[in-house]
Amino acid sequence: MTTVESGRRERKKAATRQKIADTALRLFLExxxxxxxxxxxxxxxxxxxxxxxxxFASKEALVFEQDADFEQRLTQAVTGRAPHEPxxxxxxxxxxxxxxxxxxxxxxxVWHMVVGSPALREYEESMRLRHAETLATAIAADPxxxxxxxxxxxxxxxxxxxxxxxxxxxxxxxxxxEVFEMIEAAWRVTSP
Length: 192
Description:
Layout: H1 3-31, H2 38-45, H3 49-55, H4 59-63, H5 67-79, H6 88-103, H7 108-116, H8 118-141, H9 149-167, H10 172-189
């Protein structure tokens, strides 16, 4: 197979994934999350249910379609640092970016939907725990950071929770900075 064919296949898969996610979000916002089933989304997106599930593991995952990208960006903030660069500034930048995205005017209806759905709140919480574990693993793997596993997991959890706390604050960007001041103090305390 040529690289062109492989590249075209990946673009088509990405376009199908985005079409499914956009369709699902539109239907959820129009009709209500609980009123829309997987078959409704697949039919509206003109894909088979099996195709939908090849892109998304669950109905809840349709709402959080950028989940993997966010997790990868956080990990990259740790692993992509220059040698001996401090840990927290790149993580703060990523959390600021996420909060800007989540609090943009067009995203308010999505977050109202998440808050109003027990299934989505539960999914988001499990997603945050997974992100925290992935982030903790990346921090612990960096020999320049030299912290205990508990310290890495705690700081990772704080970083992930900073986004949720800031999203609910009257001034989300100021809240990120306030939370990160506390995270930085905690990080200093764990210094070997």
